[in-house]
């Protein structure tokens, strides 16, 4: 027997692979036991995107989607579904809003609203098998660029496509390549920025894990466009799986002669090396990244000269983000016109977002530019869990800002998002519900920024520290009149005077929360009250007798035995025993504790 | 493997695509083997194995083989349904290895419905 009838596409992304190897092992055993090993094949894929339901598996060709598979479920799947043809319903996806069971992947709203370009191979190919990638038109873009196109034509095609940098700043990719191609010099470099550092962002990691060859192919095309023969992928060392798959991919591409000398017999030479970063946030900034590859301490330098003139080792260099490069092969293969057919006036193509926070469907989504944020949060994301209210969505990590309810209908577009005080960013999208304190949120990001500040310039090193101190004071109930004005003044100074992009955008979390949630800052400072009831220091730990349902949940859960309660009586917190651990607060379903 | 030329790249694509047909676009022809407990007891495993063998030999990309549950006509098991796009599906009854081979060669590959073994159109 030589033919496979069913393939089990088991997700091997970082999220799912916490348990998927165990699941795979049981599958192999059970298939063997039922005599199905030769008819049914297990394929380990890259991240499917629906991380919150992991481990997930797609059964092809039927398209049945299983979620949260445990090793003990496997015998049932093998016997019932694979042997007897009865899909196991209890492992189907259940739509959170309607509680409806949906068996096939394409009907699940999380997937059906997406548009896959960068992630077109996710869950379809085995990322460690180069032939799988080639079967999906892999390396045909590079072949076309090397054989049929001049560097000028490649750059022209990129400009027509309207592709803009997906790392966050949104600089037109074609233009960047053009500058570097015009710079004089024999030695030039193509760099891939895989130093994804924003809290809550995991797009690039998943692309590298699911489709590493797409990034390599993009780099080959970029190298041809600027006539470079050496490329580096700067990946953070915290991404072991991505680095492993990249290493395998580079090895396979070299064996096929798709990297190295005389690629595809065209006489063009190009090779790629992986450089592992040590995990400093600042090394995602282009000039700091290049210093780090040079073996120096990763710190930004003033621009100009821009990297297109003087970059790595003072040679003309282009640096593109993982997602940007993964778009390139398809643009070359299908043409810039095809690519720009999707999107808005100034933002073309698709964008990958890492959806996380207070949202039902946490995971990775790729959407066409121009789709509204509301569609992403409520249709793809499935809305807010536990029947809570939406408050804001944070875009672009520490350099970004938040978008409140009233602006949720704006389209995904570089300019439109900037108008409401946030940025497109690299794709981190953190959803926050009514229980999030915006002052506390700003404090979290400021803590991150001041911690990651490289210290080279004073505005960032000292300024962000002072911002954090003020925010800490406000959250501890020690805010004083004038704090808001100080925050604003300091922020604007940092914005204007910091050396690099990360410093200049550092105060954004403060500014954007002040823009939409100034009343929360005022409540903290003037009324010593945290409206979202998040800041422990501002809570009184008292029980409102009118709201208390006398259920005793707080009493049962209090670890300090600080609550007295009898059946049919209102509970009372004894303040001398209370350790302010928030347990009662979390257990009370009626919001009676304040 | 040595250096690839663009011709080699095309060959690899062709070969690898065959292995991946299950994952992408659906085939035009679907052969369903009904494998409930009743079907398996009546010999559906053997039918499935024969079908897979035939499929392996035929080297045809547009055929999808699916195991499915009991039809409800347990007395006529093993049942096999052949669905060709644009045509009425045909359900075969009391299948065995030989009948499966005939149905595969004549109906699936050539489109001739084997009325002698058929239970119903549906």
UniProtKB/TrEMBL annotation, chain A:
The keyword ATP-binding does not apply. Gene3D superfamilies: 3.10.20.600, 3.30.70.20, 6.10.250.1450, Glutaredoxin, NADH-ubiquinone oxidoreductase 51kDa subunit, NADH-ubiquinone oxidoreductase 51kDa subunit, iron-sulphur binding domain. GO terms for molecular function: 4 iron, 4 sulfur cluster binding; FMN binding; metal ion binding; NADH dehydrogenase (ubiquinone) activity. Residues 539-568, 569-594 form the 4Fe-4S ferredoxin-type domain. Coiled coil: none annotated. PROSITE patterns: 4FE4S_FER_1, 4FE4S_FER_2, COMPLEX1_51K_2, PROKAR_LIPOPROTEIN. It comes from the Bacteria. This is NADH-quinone oxidoreductase subunit.
Automatic annotation (TrEMBL), chain B:
CDD domains: TRX_Fd_family. This is NADH-quinone oxidoreductase. InterPro entries: Thioredoxin-like_sf. Pfam families: 2Fe-2S_thioredx. Gene3D superfamilies: Glutaredoxin (3.40.30.10).
């Amino acid at each position: 027997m030589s033919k496979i009838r069913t393939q089990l596409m088991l997700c091997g992304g970082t999220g799912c692979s916490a348990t998927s190897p165990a699941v795979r092992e049981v599958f192999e055993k059970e298939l063997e036991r039922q005599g199905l090993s030769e008819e049914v094949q297990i394929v380990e894929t890259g991240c499917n995107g629906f991380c919150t339901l992991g481990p997930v598996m797609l059964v092809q060709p039927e398209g049945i989607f299983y979620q949260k598979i445990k090793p003990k479920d496997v015998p049932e799947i093998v016997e019932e579904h694979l042997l007897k043809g009865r899909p196991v319903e209890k492992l189907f996806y259940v739509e959170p809003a309607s509680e409806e069971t949906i068996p096939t992947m394409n009907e699940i709203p999380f997937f059906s609203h997406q548009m896959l370009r960068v992630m077109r191979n996710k869950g379809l190919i085995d990322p460690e098998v180069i032939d799988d990638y080639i079967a999906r038109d892999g390396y045909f873009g590079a072949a076309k660029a090397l054989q049929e196109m001049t560097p000028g034509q490649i750059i022209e095609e990129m400009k027509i496509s309207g592709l803009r940098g997906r790392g966050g700043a949104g600089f037109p990719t074609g233009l960047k390549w053009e500058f570097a191609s015009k710079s004089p010099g024999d030695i030039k470099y193509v760099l891939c920025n895989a130093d994804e550092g924003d809290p809550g962002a995991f797009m690039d990691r998943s692309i590298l894990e699911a489709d590493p060859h797409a990034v390599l192919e993009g780099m080959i095309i970029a190298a041809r466009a600027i006539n470079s023969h050496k490329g580096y992928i700067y990946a953070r060392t915290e991404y072991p799986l991505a680095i492993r798959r990249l290493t395998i991919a580079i090895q396979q591409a070299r064996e096929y002669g798709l990297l190295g000398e005389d690629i595809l017999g065209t006489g063009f030479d190009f090779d790629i090396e992986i450089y592992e970063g040590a995990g400093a946030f600042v090394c995602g900034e282009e000039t700091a990244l290049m210093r780090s590859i040079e073996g120096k301490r990763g710190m930004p330098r003033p621009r100009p000269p821009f990297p297109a003139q003087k970059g790595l080792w003072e040679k003309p260099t282009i640096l593109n983000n993982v997602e940007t490069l993964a778009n390139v092969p398809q643009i070359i293969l299908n043409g810039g016109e095809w690519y720009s057919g999707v999107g808005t006036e100034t933002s073309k193509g698709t964008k990958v977002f890492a959806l996380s926070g207070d949202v039902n469907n946490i995971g990775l989504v790729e959407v066409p530019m121009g789709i509204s944020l509301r569609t992403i949060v409520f249709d793809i994301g499935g809305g807010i869990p536990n029947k809570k209210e939406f408050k804001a969505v944070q875009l672009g990590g520490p350099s970004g800002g938040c978008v409140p309810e009233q602006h949720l209908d704006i389209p995904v577009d570089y300019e439109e998002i900037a108008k409401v005080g946030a940025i497109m960013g690299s794709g981190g999208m953190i959803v926050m519900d009514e229980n999030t304190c915006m002052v506390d949120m700003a404090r979290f990001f400021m803590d991150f920024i001041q911690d990651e500040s490289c210290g080279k310039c004073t505005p960032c090193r000292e300024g962000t520290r002072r911002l954090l101190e003020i925010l800490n004071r406000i959250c501890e109930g020690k805010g004083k009149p004038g704090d808001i004005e100080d925050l604003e003044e300091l922020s604007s100074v940092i914005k204007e005077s910091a050396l690099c992009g990360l410093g200049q955008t550092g105060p954004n979390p403060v500014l954007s929360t002040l823009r939409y949630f100034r009343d929360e800052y005022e409540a903290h400072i003037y009324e010593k009250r945290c409206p979202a009831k998040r800041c422990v220091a501002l809570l009184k730990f008292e029980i409102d007798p009118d709201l208390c349902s006398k259920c005793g949940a707080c009493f049962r859960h209090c670890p300090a035995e600080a609550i007295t309660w009898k059946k049919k009586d209102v509970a009372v917190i004894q303040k001398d025993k209370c350790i302010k651990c928030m347990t009662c607060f979390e257990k009370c379903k009626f919001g009676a504790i304040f | 493997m040595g250096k690839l030329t663009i011709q080699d790249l095309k060959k690899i694509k062709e070969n690898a695509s065959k292995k991946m047909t299950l994952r992408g676009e659906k085939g035009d022809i679907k052969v369903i083997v009904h494998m409930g407990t009743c079907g398996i007891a009546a010999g559906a495993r053997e039918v499935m194995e024969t079908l897979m063998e035939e499929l392996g030999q035929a080297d045809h990309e547009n055929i999808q083989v699916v195991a499915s549950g009991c039809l409800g006509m347990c007395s006529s098991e093993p049942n096999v349904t052949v669905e060709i796009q644009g045509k009425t599906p045909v359900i075969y009854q009391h299948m065995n290895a030989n009948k499966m081979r005939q149905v595969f060669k004549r109906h699936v590959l050539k489109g001739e419905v084997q009325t002698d073994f058929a239970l119903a159109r549906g």
